[in-house]
Fold:
Amino acid sequence: MGQLTQAMDHGADATPDDGAVFVDRRVIAFRAPALCEILSVVWLDAGTGMRATAMRFSTSRQMIHATVDLAGGEMERNLPASELLPLLIAYCLGARIALPSQAEKSVRITSGGAVLDCVTTHGSLPHFRRRADRGRVMGHWER
Structure:
């Protein structure tokens, strides 16, 4: 299981595999234009009046440097990955993008945007429920 975790991990923080039977990992990547729109929408919904117009990414500091328009004036706002996480989750919930509630969530800043990483580890397989109206799961096979 450790090799699977390392293969999925690609050098990021290790995925927990203590007694895990399988790991469910969902990764959503947001590019700069999408992040500008997301921040603007979430800030508008919160009533701040701020609108993101441009951004730069600092991968070494895990920080986004956003240029923000506020009442016609321009200012710079620094957002660490830890502050970006709840904003991305709020956007995903509002946009009805499914995020597993029990997953461990984190954000990583890359050179082209931000990555929302959701990891759930399972210690046992969920019960498989066969559909009563079908005899086979994969349909009929022909030779």
